[in-house]
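Final report, results section. Input specification for complex C-07:
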Amino acid sequence: MSVFETVTGPNATFQSIILVLKFPFLYGHTCHMINVNLFLILQSLFFGYIKSCIPNLTYLHNTKQQVLLKLLHSVTPTQKEHNHFQEKLNMFSVKELVESNCTSSVPSNYVCLKTPEDSILYDETDNIPTIDFSQLTSSNPDERSNAIHQLGDACRDWGFFMLINHGVSETLREKVLREGESFFDLSQEEKMEYAGEKILDPIRYGTSFNLMVDKTFFWRDYLKCLVHPHFNAPSKPPALRETLEEYSRKGKGVVEELLKGISLSLGLEENYIHKRMDVEMGCQVLVINYYPPCPKPELVMGLPAHTDHGILTLLMHNELGGLQIQHKGNWIPVNPLPNSFLFNTGDHMEILTNGRYKSVVHRAVVNTKATRISVGTAHGPNLDTIVGPAPELVGDDNPAAYRAIKYRDYILLQQNNELDRKTCLDRIRI
Ligand SMILES: O=C(O)CCC(=O)C(=O)O
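Structure output:
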């Protein structure tokens, strides 16, 4: 049966369920089919019974049937959409695409429209702030207070900084990158075991950003794992789980110290953000991005301009650059210091601080030479925490600029919509 063949009745419902099992990412569309079909069956039974009692209802029955059939037809895509979807199914991985395609071209559905401004880069890498973690955690009050001050400036002026002397060993960082990359070397069948459709699935392998909403595909495959409050990771390759668990735990420790410094830099009590966002049970999502080499990198995007939904994102990548951040309207390529971590403030930092610390727009570009791997860990509030601007940071001359929203709902809002260069914050701005 073709994916979009229009069938009705119990047979269609059964086939729809089979489809979901075969192609979990069709879930949304198929659920709709199942719902419509179940509804048709139920209403047929209902009207069948009533009709036998009151013959005059036949007309009403037929009319309703037509409307429902139209509804069903309205989810049947055009031929163009059908072809588009078939392509999605065939190209479920950009790694597979690169490895199976010996040509030097890029499929048209990966070509991103770029404005001239998109291509201009300003080399201000030297100015990206560097924070020394050993000073931030120093027992010397002057040293610590100086580092807190620098951290506050970095969050306010850049929303982005490099962290040195963080205490996470280079050996562990390299292991994460190496073993993370080896996940993508598993067979497509093994990886597809983790191809979840739902945004908050504990482990999710995929490609692009969100296949169900992307109009253009992005040149990346990814593996996302919810690593806190409950740790989840694939069981293959064998060493990956243990490595990611250690890395996530250490990363969380670093973030918790940074959040203390950030709270103090805002004039708040040291544990303010920790308590307010329930970081103890906070949602930590680790994403391994796999960007294979591309024959025409100027035509595609690894990840388009976006902001992160959490409070703070910790990022590192292999030896290949590709991260660019937006600063005062300019795109700046980032070349981190050796052994440093990159950090950026996310949307929930901007919401909580009522805009004092901005969530930074960034993107990832790809190259012709080799595969770029990056590992981002988003640290956010507890999924059920409702976050709005901190009352301490709101006043008559600085009214609340964002509506309070549950973190879970915010993630769904962001991830179920196309990354269209706008920050998701625009959706909750007052
Ligand atoms: O690959 C990178 O450097 C950036 C990744 C990123 O922005 C993300 O995972 O949200």
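The chain has two domains: 12-99, 109-426. The longest strand covers residues 221-228. This concludes the modelling results for the funded period.
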